[in-house]
Amino acid sequence: EQKMYMEQPLKPENVPASTDKMPGEVERKHLGTETVDGKKTEKYRIVYTAGNKREAIFQWVAADLRFPIKTAAEDGSWIMEYKNLKTGKQPDALFEIPAGYQKMSLGIPSIP
User: Fold this and answer.
1) What is the mean pLDDT of residues 51-63?
2) How do beta strands 25-36 and 4-5 pair?
3) Residue of 18, 4, 7, 25 lying closest to 111 (CA atoms)
4) Residue 26 and residue 110: Cα distance in Å, rounded?
5) Residue 13: pLDDT above 60?
6) How large is the C-alpha radius of gyration of the chain?
7) Predicted confidence (pLDDT) at residue 112 exceeds the cutoff of 60
8) Which region holds residue 96: left if phi is over 0, alpha if psi is between -120 and 50, else beta?
9) How far apart are alpha carbons 44 and 80 in whole angstroms?
10) Residue 40 CA neighbour count, 13 Å, CB half
11) Bridge pairing between strands 67-73 and 53-62
12) What is the DSSP string of 49-104?
């Protein structure tokens, strides 16, 4: 409605964890292979610290993507799963700023 956009740098902590060590990770155990949404995955149990708490999750990493397509709390309180994934090059047009849009400044001087 206001025809504005905002740029934000990509921070590693905002990217879904992969098979690399995740922040606060203290233990990773390979539990075997499973099929999730038709994809062969490697299943892991990961223990990590968040603040003063120790948490445990399960993570299913797609063998072909090397990306976790399913993550779940060990206690079953939540599950996150990606389905119907399609990989490949994205059209450049998806990254072009629409005509007539202006960059938001949020009171921070922008560098042209």
Assistant:
1) 93
2) unpaired
3) 7
4) 40
5) no
6) 19
7) no
8) beta
9) 15
10) 4
11) antiparallel
12) EETTEEEEEEEEEETTTTEEEEEEETTSS-EEE--S---SPPPGGGGSPPTT-EE-
